[in-house]
Amino acid sequence: MKTFEEKWTAWLDGHLTGRELAEFEASLPDKAAAETERADAKKLSTLLKRELAAHALTNEEFFSHQVRERIAREGVSPSRERNVAVPTWWTIRRLLWTGTASLAIFLILAIFVMRDKNPAEQSQYLTQILNARVDPVVSPNATVSMFEAKKDRVTVLWTEGLQSLPSDYAAR
Amino acid sequence: MARARPLLLAFIALIVSAVPGLRGAEKVWSGLVIAENVSQPQPIPPELTRIERPLKQLFGYNQFQVIGQSQKTLQTGQEDWLATSKFFGLRVDARGESEAGYILNLKLYKEKELLLETDAKLSKRSPLIIKGPQVGGGQLLLVLVVQ
Fold it and tell me: Which of A77, A123, A146, B122 has the fewest Cβ atoms within 10 Å of its own Cβ atom?
């Protein structure tokens, strides 16, 4: 035996038929108001179906959707990060060129330094007088000395007491 | 590859210029110079321009005239040569080349009379000046420069 509420719900949904429908509609105190209410219920039902259809996920579907999305995110992110890594200036070719150029600069500097560096001898850049002598018969009082004008990079052999000569000897 | 070629050439050029043994022959200029003080000094000869300042500062003269000279290109470092004026002769005997320069034996003659003899290691970057005898009011100087 159905209660009134059960019959009312079935009537609203259009599930009552035949004798049962006739008896129920006869029992309604105000059939016009009931028809209005049933029409409103249908409108509401239609509206809800339309609006909520896109989000109609069951719990299982929602859970598996979340899991799939998470797996995809964790699996794809690193490779995506690798693919979009910040481009670097140090390509292999540039590394090779830089290395070669550095080696060349080092060699050149090493050669220059080794060529110029000789702390034991100043003769690397200044002329050296190894020895000097004057004829003691021609110039018995002559003396020789030597010095370097380092500022001008000039070496001088300085003689004193050589025999003086007349100006005729300045002839070309 | 086209960009690499100039770089390679520049590198080789630098290496070649840096290695002393690969440089070409050098010239040695030898001169007999009379230094004097005159009221109207002549311009200094171009061969002495490089050492004009030390010449004037060290010897105190205002005019320098070349009375004899010789320019010798050294190939082996064993050459000898003579720079002469009317009365003087400077004989230079090269006795080898080192990294720093040339080893030279120098002899100054007055006609056939040896006045002075010296051995020197002439640097390629450093001229040699020898103060000779007094000549009149001036001074005879011997100058050797690697050009």
Answer: A77
Phi, psi angle pair for B138, to nearest 5° = -120, -160
Give the model's pLDDT for residue A91.
86
Distance from CA of B76 to the nearest CA of A (A): 19
A102 interface with B at CB cutoff 8 Å: no
Domain ranges of chain B: 24-146
ipTM (interface pTM): 0.83
Q: Quote the mean pLDDT of chain A.
A: 83
Q: How far apart are CA B7 and CA A97, in angstroms?
A: 10
pLDDT for B3: 59
Which residues of B are less than 8 Å from A125 in CB distance? 100, 123, 125-126
Indicate the pTM of the whole model. 0.57
Residue length of chain B? 147
Burial B100-118 (b: 16+ CB within 10 A, else e): bbbbbbbebbbeeebbbbb
- The beta-carbon neighbor of A131 closest among B18, B119, B135 is B119
